[in-house]
């Protein structure tokens, strides 16, 4: 029923930034070369994400907004070796139940596109529409029908920063995708899609800090850690400046951060943290991303091994640096 579906929605969609994360991940899963994000009023009024990915056939559009409908899992075994960012089939259903929602899409095999409109999870209406190949998701008036959620949204600036932090990190993680972000028609971020992570780093840390960051690449036991770390703990920094992507997904994991800090040893001063933007790739069967719908946590099959690798990678990266 309606209430149950709104509660379920709350698991996945907590604020505008979580909507952006889900839609952005869908665009990546669709193989997008370009992702445009258009935000109005910090996402409270409008979140619109367009991509040039594979698109959704008209006959599958209404399935896409049904709960637990995913095109990405073919068997139960897939759950243990997830290759895509999405796999639950919950995001679109959740977002559509708490907003005025529209999904426009066209795969290359179709001459025209189709648009599906859903209002607060109700009255799904579909019609043909001219559209370029790819997908546009429009989320208007988020939580308009869930006043309790609406009340808990933070000030505009806070929600806006959360969106920017998220999109910037994903833009660094996926440097071969052109990413464009505007707030109320103001351009906030634009990447070239040329595959250079350092180019986008400056957007996160500022030119000066980004220039000084050390590049890390380390491989061990089928795991690979790459990315950027600051040579020392940076004053203005805090734990929020430590970012880990595991198999292409942004995760927030205290143990990974601790492994990083261990790698710094005596370079850490009390109350200061380093900057880090690190990408850990492990064989998919070594990591369980199935912990929480928002998928911010991970569980490793052999966490000691993973944390050891992170620590050694960081130590090695710092040693290679001679000021
Ligand atoms: P999940 O990503 O877990 O499969 P979602 O609710 O996020 O679930 O999306 C449901 C389905 O809609 C996806 O499995 C996919 O088939 C389709 N879909 C969603 N967004 C896009 C997109 N931007 N491009 C192509 N297909 C999409
Ligand atoms: Mg998804």
UniProtKB/TrEMBL annotation:
<keyword id="KW-0234">DNA repair</keyword>
<dbReference type="GO" id="GO:0005524">
    <property type="term" value="F:ATP binding"/>
</dbReference>
<dbReference type="GO" id="GO:0006298">
    <property type="term" value="P:mismatch repair"/>
</dbReference>
<dbReference type="GO" id="GO:0016887">
    <property type="term" value="F:ATP hydrolysis activity"/>
</dbReference>
<dbReference type="GO" id="GO:0030983">
    <property type="term" value="F:mismatched DNA binding"/>
</dbReference>
<dbReference type="GO" id="GO:0140664">
    <property type="term" value="F:ATP-dependent DNA damage sensor activity"/>
</dbReference>
<comment type="similarity">
    <text>Belongs to the DNA mismatch repair MutL/HexB family.</text>
</comment>
<protein>
    <recommendedName>
        <fullName>DNA mismatch repair protein MutL</fullName>
    </recommendedName>
</protein>
<dbReference type="GO" id="GO:0032300">
    <property type="term" value="C:mismatch repair complex"/>
</dbReference>
<comment type="function">
    <text>This protein is involved in the repair of mismatches in DNA. It is required for dam-dependent methyl-directed DNA mismatch repair. May act as a 'molecular matchmaker', a protein that promotes the formation of a stable complex between two or more DNA-binding proteins in an ATP-dependent manner without itself being part of a final effector complex.</text>
</comment>
<feature type="domain" description="DNA mismatch repair protein S5">
    <location>
        <begin position="201"/>
        <end position="319"/>
    </location>
</feature>
<keyword id="KW-0227">DNA damage</keyword>
